[in-house]
Design brief:
The structure holds two protein chains of two kinds. By secondary structure, chain A is mainly β. Chain A contains no helices and 22 strands. Helix content of chain A is about 0%, strand content about 45%. In chain B, the strands form two sheets. In chain B, strands 4-3-2-1-5 form a five-stranded antiparallel beta sheet. At the A-B interface, strand 12 of A face strand 8 of B.
Chain lengths: ~260, ~300
């Protein structure tokens, strides 16, 4: 949607034959064109990370990435859906955060949004791209074991009112209970976003359900619980995107080091 | 004709015919059972071991079962096992001398399989050859190099020489050697380099990029800047980071020097005479010189 950061940017869009349409989502410029038997998708991210240049007269094929998708009947609608990252997101507070024993707190952390483009008629996904490509990072006890994640920085805000308006970012309320006898230092935190659902109230704010972190006594284990409902911070929210991966257990037990680096 | 067949007919009495038949049945059954055992071994091993070892287990089971049935068949034909083994012993000594290289490769191959420094599909470097491992066999390791050549390396040389497995760990570090001019500020160069790594999404944020001051070079201050990348993006990072460093240094006005030579002829010598020429004069002078056929 070329009007940019205001309002809802996802949804279904109808295109007439040979119509071309452009969307600028933060640094991402996305173009879609409907032909008689194909969809053409083109997208590119501005190199400096700044807002993409608005609608251009360029052809969709000229974009850095994308392609043509051929169908017997391509349908007339295209659907844009927000999604979460396909790998866990490692959040680093700007300054280390300490949770003393027995304390609990709610942090609001945001993670970058992905965009899924789907041809509604044939029901085929045309692209699954980040709005702004986050940096890769490694999360694990050593360079030999661990997993590849995306990196993001957070102010780790404690009050909802302090949260800045960040279009194309998805907010996760993170509740931390420190039930152990030692202080919990939060330097880096790996958030398993592929297991989370996206909720929206219809405005541009995107949320995931609340994630509970319970740091248990003695054992070096952390219970990570993903709530099934929309977070209490927003009322009347509807799920708009299912999680990428299904996790059977509601509680994921992880070693302390595999969650906090 | 009758005379020719007679001894053969004598030898081929019904009893012998029966034993021949039995031996044949043994061999047939042997092949059947060996195949069964091989499939079974492959399935059982496949659950616990990797593809290569499962294949090895399959072959081992096949030949072991087949050998047992073959020995029984020979026994049925009236060969004495003790004599056969004795003959095999003598033969193996002779063969051992004749095939020293093969034997050494074979034994190296067995060690290689048990030590497992790399697996099929890994990218390894042996000497100057870098390539993807296609198979690890009893006598040699087969590689496919990146320019699509097939390289066979004897197991003996693999055991003897240094082997680097490039794809063992999921992330790799790339070291860029870079120098800046003596007049530049090191702290600023460091900032610029860190910003370059930060901007490149394929450079890992953690482990953090490393900045190491290598020393005072002949014409530059030398650094090593090391960035981490995931295995699959390594080549892309290697290419993009150098280009980005050059661009960032150009933008920041930091000079990457080339070797300088200062001519010093000692304090007692006179300074070098320098003549200042006007651009236009110099150009016309050259033209005149060329006209006179006497280029300066």
């Amino acid at each position: 949607m070329s009007e940019g950061s205001t309002g809802k940017w996802w949804g279904e869009f109808e295109l007439a034959e040979d119509e071309r349409r452009w969307w600028t989502l933060g640094p991402l410029l996305l173009g879609a064109e409907r032909k008689q038997r194909e969809w053409r998708i083109g997208h590119e991210e501005s190199s400096n990370g700044e807002a993409a240049a608005p609608k251009t007269n360029r052809s969709v094929d000229e974009m850095a990435e994308g392609g043509r998708f051929v169908f017997a009947d391509p349908g007339s609608e295209i659907r844009l859906t927000p999604a979460l990252a396909d790998r866990p997101v490692v959040t680093r507070p700007l300054s280390p955060l300490y949770v003393p024993p027995g304390e609990q707190t709610v942090l609001f952390v945001s993670s970058p949004a992905w965009l899924r483009i789907e041809a509604v008629g044939p029901g085929v996904e045309l692209a699954d791209i980040p709005v702004a490509r986050p940096s890769d990072t490694w999360f694990g006890p050593s360079t030999r074991e661990g997993e590849l994640c995306y990196a993001t920085r957070t102010h780790g805000r404690l009050r909802l009112e302090d949260l800045p308006v960040q279009p194309y970012r998805i907010i996760t309320p993170l509740e931390i209970f420190n039930e152990s006898k030692s202080e919990l230092k939060l330097e880096r935190l790996s958030l398993p976003v592929p297991y989370l659902t996206i909720y929206s109230t219809g405005s541009q704010d995107l949320w995931t359900q609340k994630v509970n972190l319970r740091c248990e006594d003695e054992s070096q284990l952390v219970a990570l619980r993903i709530k099934q409902r929309a977070p209490s911070q927003i009322s009347g929210a509807e799920p708009i995107a299912p999680p990428r991966k299904e996790h059977e257990a509601q509680v994921i037990k992880r070693a302390l080091t595999s969650l906090f680096g | 004709m009758q005379e020719l067949i007679a001894p053969f007919a004598d030898w081929l009495n019904p009893e012998r015919l029966m034993s021949l038949l039995r031996a044949g049945i043994f061999i047939g059954l042997g092949i059947l059972f060996a195949r069964l055992a091989a499939t079974l071994a492959h399935k059982m091993a496949g659950a616990h071991l990797d593809a290569h070892r499962a294949m090895l287990a399959r072959r081992l089971a096949y030949y072991l079962v087949l050998a047992l049935f073959l020995v029984s068949a020979l026994h049925e034909l009236g060969f004495s096992l003790g004599v056969l083994l004795g003959a095999a012993g003598v033969l193996s000594v002779a063969l051992g001398f004749a095939s020293q290289t093969s034997a050494s490769n074979l034994i190296s191959g067995i060690f290689l399989l048990s030590e497992r420094p790399f697996a099929v599909g890994d990218v390894i470097r042996i000497g100057t050859t870098t390539g993807e491992v296609m198979s690890i066999d009893l006598l040699s390791v087969k590689l496919r190099t990146f320019d699509n050549l097939f390289v066979r390396i004897p197991n003996e040389s693999v055991i003897k020489s240094e082997v680097t497995t490039l794809t063992r760990f999921p992330i790799r570090r790339y070291d860029v050697q870079v120098g800046i001019a003596y007049k530049e500020d090191i702290a600023r160069a460091r900032e610029v380099l860190m910003a370059v790594a930060d901007r490149n999404p394929l450079c890992l944020e953690e482990p953090k990029p490393l900045f190491i001051f290598l020393g005072f070079g002949d014409s530059s201050l030398n650094f090593q800047f090391s960035v981490w990348a995931s295995q699959e993006n390594f080549l892309e990072v290697r290419n993009s980071i150098q280009e980005e460093i050059k661009l960032a240094f150009d933008d920041a006005g930091i000079e990457i020097p080339f070797p300088h030579r200062t001519l010093y002829t000692g304090s007692v010598t006179e300074p070098f005479p320098v003549r200042v020429v006007d651009d236009r004069d110099a150009a016309s002078a050259t033209v005149t010189d060329m006209h006179s056929g006497n280029p300066s």
